[in-house]
Amino acid sequence: MEAAQILYDTVEVSLAVGPDIQDITAKLTRLVGQSQIENGVLSANTVGSTGSLTTIEFEPGVVADLTAAVDRWAPPGISYAHELAWHDGNGHSHVQAALMGPSISIAIRNCHLRLGTWQQVVVINHDNRARKRPIAVTIVGAVE
Amino acid sequence: MEAAQILYDTVEVSLAVGPDIQDITAKLTRLVGQSQIENGVLSANTVGSTGSLTTIEFEPGVVADLTAAVDRWAPPGISYAHELAWHDGNGHSHVQAALMGPSISIAIRNCHLRLGTWQQVVVINHDNRARKRPIAVTIVGAVE
Amino acid sequence: MEAAQILYDTVEVSLAVGPDIQDITAKLTRLVGQSQIENGVLSANTVGSTGSLTTIEFEPGVVADLTAAVDRWAPPGISYAHELAWHDGNGHSHVQAALMGPSISIAIRNCHLRLGTWQQVVVINHDNRARKRPIAVTIVGAVE
How many CA atoms lie within 13 A of C43 on its CB side? Predict the structure, then answer.
């Protein structure tokens, strides 16, 4: 048992019209290095209700498959009550993001994110326009 | 780097027959204020296997769209093995809640939840009866 | 307010060809006991991009229903770009795992996970072969 320390920061990512999926593992790894935390946990959440976070094997095939799947789960082409009221064309974006979820928690071990070799943290922009998305990152753990 | 402090509490929310979606941001914000934590992270989980947590823009359109979507992803009207065994009519509730997930983590910055302007934390009751749902909340961070 | 302490460990689970769902609550409860943390939060994530974590009522009916549902949300039988490139037959596994999400956070209260009576933490293997999956667990809280 060790006393916990905390470090926090914000990562900003430019994303294209949704669904756009970008790998943020390198950005998070940099924060983990800065934190000097050896063992602990990194929590992150998208700021904004049409973004989400998850992990995937970040290669073009999975990116294409997940892009197609989120549009299948909440298709852009059907009628949404949000659009009837607000006319901003992104009813599906809100439903997709709520489904995927805004946050993740990934362990830190020996100063690295404890992910699989073919597992990356990704942010998804579900909105119907390009967005610069802030992601709030909090690292709690024991310093080496 | 600062030493981390911890505060925990439980929020209770009365929910109608599912899918019912309620905004709990004000309740969580009150706990953040009580904690005196300036920067850190709030983790929350629903207690009970037919509830879930996510974030949405809490306005009637998105609420209606997400309500319709969860019933599309796991429709009440199809056959569920859970119902064949237990006859409580909520097979779909269990599948919906597992899909959406029981927990979220949201950053705290300058004594406030780091959410978008149009982003609220919501609890969803997926059960086929009204439920009073406890939500366990843990705040870890550095005191101002 | 109390000073936060931290404990971390890894749980390993043997899983059959996916979707295979296993209850890990007893393993997590053992770690909570070892941590001597009375109140706080347990964060866990699957290591590997074809696994996921959620909570369910772990009984054969819900297990069968959720198994069927994840295969409905991302069916094994349709075409995936990942498979066209890698020919490993698990395109659906990647999409299913990204949908369900790699991580959860569950509160600890009075030295126990704050779950419902019929709510268990489960790991899901979505891969098309049996896998031994590591789950990284981090416990942050105040010692009794």
Answer: 33
The identity of residue C84, as a single letter, is: L
User: Most C CBs within 10 Å: which of B5, B35, B41, B47, as the mutation test of the C interface?
Assistant: B47
Burial class (CB in 10 A: 0-12, 13-18, 19+), B77: exposed
For A5, half-sphere exposure in the C-beta direction (CA atoms, 13 angstrom radius) is 14
Contact yes or no for B82 and C61 at CB 8 A: yes
Q: Is there a contact between C1 and B31 (Cβ–Cβ < 8 Å)?
A: no
Going residue by residue through chain B (144 aa), what tens digit of pLDDT does each one get? Answer: 577 899 999 999 999 999 999 999 999 999 999 999 999 999 999 999 999 999 999 999 999 999 999 999 999 989 999 988 888 899 999 999 999 999 999 999 999 999 999 999 999 999 999 999 999 999 999 986
Tell whether B25 lies on the interface with A, counting CB pairs under 8 A: no
pTM to 2 decimal places: 0.97
- C2 — contact with chain B (CB < 8 Å)? yes
In this complex, do B8 and C69 lie within 8 Å of one another by their Cβ atoms? Answer: no
Q: Which residue of C has its CA nearest to B100?
A: C100
Using CB atoms, pick whichever of A2, A65, A140 lies closest to residue C82.
A65
| Dist. CA A49–CA A47, nearest whole Å | 7
Subunit contact C95:A3, Cβ cutoff 8 A: no
